[in-house]
């Protein structure tokens, strides 16, 4: 069985982008592969969360993983900071990750722009930590959204460089994965880019959002202008809402509104109402499970402890071999 690794940063609640870019694949893959799904709490330290927020958000992701259908018996679910072998491998990989390539990474450049007062070394070396997450289990498949593609490329670079340096075909090459041939980028509600926490709460539909909140957010979504000619190309904001509809609604519903659009007969009020109701139908069962599972601290503690043990077994095996390859050997 091939090995699979993926993680999500605990920055708050999971949204539809996280779900369709990543988690829905986790749920399917857990029965087909040897899977490790974790909560990337070390990665989230780059933005200096308070201890309370950090702890709460880690619990949130754990609860939401389970609510989405991750099965702790079928797969290994763990918290990144419970596996210190990851940080050890991170240190080794940093020794041959170069300033130039780290500075050129798109995510780093974005952060320099969005948080100019906090350009820390953790941000710069974020790709080596992510490579350590993946290589520590020698994974080959990594279910992620489109925004992580470059990080996967860097992971392959670091793994291959380690192999060359020690003349040892040790790490396999991992690739980004989605069951739907292409990697996914779920758009947000603001008429522009992707759905994402840093783009603001109003831009995101969270799995835990109540029906009222979903109706409100969708009603406020941007829809620039309407068609002025038949069969006109849609403006980005409208196109984005159609993309979201494709994800949560039936193909018939999408075709129905597409036809109306092409005939210049679409009423955005009706269109948004339908979109909101279909989102509610999609997220309601998950939301209910989130509420239930979050009450069960005993179960959550047990899942985290069990996952940490399984993840450390695998990580320890790798780190022991890596130490030998590097030349750390007992006298
Ligand atoms: P993060 O926490 O930003 O996002 C978690 C996952 O959700 C996907 N995603 C999206 N997919 C499609 N459309 C969107 N709008 C959207 N928004 C988020 C992300 O692509 C990701 O798969 N660096 C990672 C976390 C990480 C990781 C790893 C992932 C750390 N180590 C090792 C895989 C393997 C991140 O910040 O994802």
UniProtKB/TrEMBL annotation:
Pfam families named among the record's database cross-references: tRNA-synt_1b
Keyword annotations of the record: Aminoacyl-tRNA synthetase, ATP-binding, Cytoplasm, Ligase, Nucleotide-binding, Protein biosynthesis
Binding residue positions for L-tryptophan: 133
GO MF entries: ATP binding; tryptophan-tRNA ligase activity
InterPro entries: aa-tRNA-synth_I_CS, aa-tRNA-synth_Ic, Rossmann-like_a/b/a_fold, Trp-tRNA-ligase, Trp-tRNA-ligase_bac-type, Trp-tRNA_synthetase
Motif ('HIGH' region): 10-18
Keyword Amino-acid biosynthesis listed: no
Residues annotated to bind ATP: 9-11, 17-18, 145-147, 186, 194-198
GO BP term, pick one: tryptophanyl-tRNA aminoacylation
Subcellular location(s) of the protein: Cytoplasm
Motif 'KMSKS' region mapped to chain: 194-198
Classification via PROSITE patterns: AA_TRNA_LIGASE_I
One GO cellular component, as annotated: cytosol
UniProt EC number: 6.1.1.2
Catalysed transformations (reactions): tRNA(Trp) + L-tryptophan + ATP = L-tryptophyl-tRNA(Trp) + AMP + diphosphate + H(+)
HAMAP family on file: Trp_tRNA_synth_B
PANTHER family: TRYPTOPHAN--TRNA LIGASE, MITOCHONDRIAL (PTHR43766:SF1)
Family: Belongs to the class-I aminoacyl-tRNA synthetase family.
Subunit structure: Homodimer.
Protein name: Tryptophan--tRNA ligase
